Structure prediction request, 216 residues.
Amino acid sequence: MIPAALHDDRLASLAGETLALVAPHNPLAMSPRDAADLLPAGAPRVVAWSGSLGESLFDRSFATWMPAGREALARYLDAALDRCRETGTTLLLRTHARHVLSDAVAARALLEERDDPRLAIAFDPAACFEAEMLPDAEDHLTRLFELAAPLADLVILRSLAPPARHDDPPAPAPLGEGLLNAESLARLARDHARDDAIVAAVAPNAGPQLAAAGFA
Prediction:
């Protein structure tokens, strides 16, 4: 596995090599072509959200998980993957509970529906959690890793803090802190992620986080 640091704008090896660029926008909030044009070029990969039909990127909207959301993502991918073929980039769609690619089942279904060498998964298990899932976190993590980690080119290891407001998703926290057990995350990654996968912690202290988990 390749240890890496996830920054706001890029994914880098611990030696500083850029492995991917990060697209922070909501691709379903604009036309598919406009969203595809916002994908940065200049790296072998780009990490992007699958998007939400909510008013903002992390609003909960049931339409996102219904046919309307899946159809909007399909239109976006038609344009985005065309751009990736032009730029020689692989698109890594990042999981999030409030996006179309909401969990491991959705990630698996997408890859089964769309067999494209330019499309891959950035598996962010912590982002698949809603607050009501936290009491059974260990069971949810096991299921998520069993289904999604073998498919993922990138596995993001981080933890969670309680949400700031009742309707917010859990807040991000560094690996080794917060509500998710770092030893469990590391064990599940070693058991289920591919040998060639990138395993990332969040910058700026990704190296120490990964070293403590046995990945660096």
In short: The radius of gyration is 16 Å. The helical segments are 32-37, 62-65, 67-87, 104-113, 137-148, 182-192, 206-213.
